[in-house]
Amino acid sequence: MDIRKKCHPHLWLLTGTAEGHLFAKSLLKEGWKITVSVVSDRASIPYEKLNIEKILIGALLTEKEIRDVIIKARINQSEFNCVIDLTHPFATNITGAISKVCKELCQPFIRYERAIDNISNAFLIGKFSELKNYDLNNKSILLAVGVRHLQEALNSMENSGSNVYARVLANPESIRKTLSSSIPKENFAVLNPSVSSNGKIEKALVRKWNIDGVVCRQSGGMNEILWHRICLTMGINLWLLERPCKFKHFDSIDSYEKLIKRLNSINME
């Protein structure tokens, strides 16, 4: 390894989870240079106060776009010691593209995968169509599945006899896609996960709509944990859409400590 790499180790973090900001902040304290990729201006806000080398804003849609970032960094003599995938567990397309490009370019790559908690008060479903196996007639069901999965979930519940509601994140894309879906306007609420308030707003929605059950994704984050707690304390059902297993063959890490250990092993090569 050349002396420049030893003095100025550089990481590219592709983020889409709350851990992205926490990891970036900790890595900066340990002397790493950080370039961060986020999908939107709103997602970039937490990073603006950090001493980041560069914040790349916008979804990376193709392998070429990922390849161009890595090659440009090498041309500018600021190549990445490692590319770290901190994207959402359900964002399988971007993970597949990143890993493929990194392999082609002999670029060290680490995938962070949230640990899966075995919480027993939830029904695990492999796909939304499995909701048909449950008696939802005259039940009020709240969807907290993300706007990309909203219409698919709605389609699966169309003939279930249930009253369907949705919690929608407060950003333009989510609101626009929700308005274009088949859910009635009076049946969705626009808000952001209120983890810091212990779910007071979510609990209020459950009471307002007399919710009998919630459907969310097995994302492993604070949002999933929040719904576990709400459903358990309020005595309602919880269905979890199983996390994709497309990348089980990856040698992923599930904690910051394991990330540092892996980075140190790469940095010694």
Summarize the structure.
By secondary structure, the protein is of the alpha/beta class. The protein has helices at 3-7, 19-29, 41-44, 63-75, 92-104, 147-156, 172-179, 200-208, 222-234, 256-267; strands at 10-15, 33-38, 54-57, 82-86, 109-111, 123-125, 140-144, 163-168, 188-190, 213-217, 237-241. The strands form two sheets. Strands 6-11-10-7-8-9 form a six-stranded parallel sheet, with helices on both faces.
Could you describe the 3D structure shown?
The termini are close together. It contains ten helices and eleven strands. It has helices at residues 3-7, 19-29, 41-44, 63-75, 92-104, 147-156, 172-179, 200-208, 222-234, 256-267, and strands at 10-15, 33-38, 54-57, 82-86, 109-111, 123-125, 140-144, 163-168, 188-190, 213-217, 237-241. The protein is 36% helix and 19% strand. The longest helix is centred in the N-terminal third of the chain and has 13 residues, at 63-75. A six-stranded parallel beta sheet has the order 6-11-10-7-8-9, sandwiched between helices. The protein has a five-stranded parallel beta sheet with strand order 3-2-1-4-5, with helices on both faces. Residues 1-6 have low confidence and may be disordered. The chain has two domains: 3-115 and 246-267, NAD(P)-binding Rossmann-like Domain (Rossmann fold, 3-Layer(aba) Sandwich); 123-241, Rossmann fold (3-Layer(aba) Sandwich).
